[in-house]
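G., the chain you wanted modeled:
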Amino acid sequence: MLTGDSLWFRYGDRLPWVVQNRSLAVVPGEVLGLMAPSGYGKTTLGKLLSGYLSPVKGKVTLNGKPVPKKGYSPVQLIFQNPELSVNPRWRIDQILQEGYLPEPSVLKALGIHPGWLTRYPHELSGGELQRVAIARILNPSTQYLIADEMTAMLDANTQALIWQGVLFFVQQQQVGLIVISHDEPLLQRLCDRILRLDDNSIGVTTSVQPASMV
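Predicted structure as tokens:
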């Protein structure tokens, strides 16, 4: 279980709190949505849960222990802009092999074509590169994924293809998934539960029945 317990965070001692007393938990195989308009600390909360930031108060634990800071992290954050997570000087096949070469079924589910493997990041479209950035972290060492508006800038068909691939991996490997978005219809289609961060300081959880992305 990935747990955030009474998390507080701000970017400076005299600046307002960005995250205030947030608590949540997600279990293996569950898809949890975090929904709120801009300015409610969704992205910061995702960075706290994935270890990119450390809380001022509170703690983040994975199965009761701190999330490892060294080596490959079992909690992976997927950025909205894939350029932030790949080396622009590497070919696509090098990027995919950096941590663990994805299974062919994962590449197929994400619609990654063999012809892309000898190209460089600038030779792919944004949607194609996002599929590569996702594929490189869909490996047996990943236990939890945090997707921060990862398809917000893509067309509807590409969004559906990417989410189908991610959900295939989540179901096959029983990986926990946190989806950060302000898009309620998207979260209703994807998630088992939605945590609405703008309702109050703790958040209100709503159970939903996910629909197919097809």
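The first strand starts at residue 2 and ends at 9.

Shout if anything looks off.
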